[in-house]
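Posting for a labmate who doesn't have an account.
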Amino acid sequence: NKEKIMEIYLMRHGESHINKEKYSVVTEVSSEEIGFEPDLSERGKAESLLTGQEFKRLGIKFNKIICSPMLRALRSAEFILKGMEEPEMHVDVDPKTFEQGGSSSKKTVKVGDKITYKGLSKAKIEKMFPFARVPADQISDEGWYTKD
């Protein structure tokens, strides 16, 4: 009788433009200067694609993928799925997986904080990333950063 073992893989997004420019949570720079929602750099896209290809080479398949609603995390998931050649795989978007205190913010930012940036909306995520399953009760039409 073969025992079933659950394996969990945790991944950080591929290199973003913020990472490329060496910005960090202690960098004094406004979100308007660098964009609060940075996309992946070309290197980050390549890293994510190679990760997916390696998962495929190793025969690793996922029952479920959970992803942050941040653009760089969704873009990483997109390229990982491409590398795995899994066009039918869905990704569950969960705002609770958001890196709190990140995104070049010197203060700790939490979901629901009153800030100008509202994050990607449910409609925008679904349009940009057709593989994404977005919970309506957690991500509003205004953006995911507005829900408590």
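Reply:
Got it, the structure tokens are right above this. Confidence is low (pLDDT under 50) at residues 24-35, 103-108.
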